[in-house]
Write a structure and sequence with these properties.
Structural class: alpha/beta
Strand content: 5-15%
Oligomer: single chain
Helix content: 40-55%
Radius of gyration: 23 Å
CATH superfamily of the largest domain: P-loop containing nucleotide triphosphate hydrolases
Largest sheet: 6 strands, mixed
CATH architecture of the largest domain: 3-Layer(aba) Sandwich
Number of helices: 15
CATH class of the largest domain: Alpha Beta
Number of domains: 3
Order of helices and strands: HHHEHHEHEHHEHEHEHHHHH
Distance between the termini: 54 Å
Number of strands: 6
Low-confidence stretches: 52-68
Length: 333
């Protein structure tokens, strides 16, 4: 498409508040500039697309910060950099994420029909399978900042302190479009029927539920839990989309290794499928840790074009972690 047409489409989508069309047109423009060799301009356009600089659509009216700066100790902000296409996901989960993103981008149309965009997502499953990364991807695709909740400052030791800080946090989140991420959500959302828990924890859960119900739909709440069985049943019902991220299959690990190899421009010296066979039973994070250990050594030794020896050496070093996996595979056969 001619650059003039792209610029016209860009202005039209911005005027109409169509964030999805704006994003697609801007990304097409960036790719064309890269193809022309205009790397500096392309990089500047990429930076201008970051969530902190996007202010499209009518959006929520910014409110005065009711927490008087206390939110700074309760969260830390991350600029998302991972796109949905960079993740290896089952097709069903990928489509669910795309639907949520589209609903957020076209929220005004839903509002016109007395509907709200879904804004509460619960991610469950074993550690290392991409729950935190998926939260980042959601923020990237939505062009929102990612706010990660800091439990070390949120949870207090005095009566009512945690609930009060939680309110400050939620009040701040309401001032803008954002993704609010609660990792290890069972820390706050424990089952209130557990006789081992104190009354304070039960009050925190009740306060949490009220705060979540009061959030506008432009605040995307993403909660992740390695132990979803510990969550209060009422907490489960608050989330419109509940996604379980299972352990990766051999095919998914193969694609994950291929992606890392392409991104890091390295030849591992083994077919990705062969490495995936050795590592089946490990999670995405462990496989990425292995691959990056090879990449680092290959870069230092200037062997990125053929890292077979390094890969073999790392497989030996990982023997203690891989042997239980291989033994389980042998027993299964």
């Amino acid at each position: 498409m001619a650059q003039a047409d792209l610029l016209v489409d860009l202005i039209k989508s911005a005027t109409n508040g169509d964030q999805l069309a704006f994003r697609k047109t801007a990304e097409t423009l960036i790719q064309e500039e890269k193809a022309k060799g205009h790397r500096v301009l392309a990089d500047r356009l990429v930076k201008s697309l970051q969530p902190s600089t996007i202010g499209m659509g009518r959006g929520p009216a910014l409110k005065q910060n009711a927490s008087n700066g206390q939110h700074k100790d309760l969260i830390y902000e991350i600029t998302p950099e991972r796109a949905l296409d960079s993740l290896v996901l089952p097709d069903k989960i990928r489509e669910q994420i795309k639907e949520v993103v589209e609903e957020q981008h076209r929220a005004e149309l839903l509002h016109a029909h007395n509907l709200r965009a879904r804004n509460r997502v619960l991610l469950a499953g074993p550690p290392g399978n991409g729950k935190t990364t998926l939260a980042e991807v959601l923020a990237y695709e939505l062009m929102y900042p990612l706010f990660v909740v800091r439990y070390e400052t949120l949870v207090g030791s005095y009566l009512g302190e945690t609930s009060s800080r939680l309110k400050h946090l939620m009040d701040y989140a309401k001032t803008q479009r954002c993704v609010l991420f609660f990792d290890e959500f069972e820390t706050l959302g424990k089952e209130r029927g557990d006789t081992h828990e104190t009354g304070e924890i039960k009050r925190v859960v009740s306060s949490l539920l009220l705060q979540i119900d009061d959030l506008p739909d432009y605040v995307m709440v993403v909660a992740a839990s390695n132990h979803p069985e510990l969550l209060d049943r009422a907490v489960w019902r608050r989330f419109q989309l509940r996604i379980e991220l299972p352990m990766p299959t051999r095919q998914q690990l193969t694609r994950h290794i291929e992606t890392i190899g392409q991104r890091c421009q390295i030849n591992f010296g083994y077919e990705p499928e062969t490495l995936a066979k050795y590592m089946q039973g490990l999670n995405f994070a462990e496989v990425e840790e292995f691959c990056l250990s090879v990449v680092r050594r290959a870069v230092l030794d200037k062997k990125s074009d053929d890292a077979q020896f390094i890969t073999r050496l790392k497989l030996e070093q990982w023997r203690d972690r891989l042997e239980p996996v291989l033994n389980r595979q042998g027993e299964g056969e």
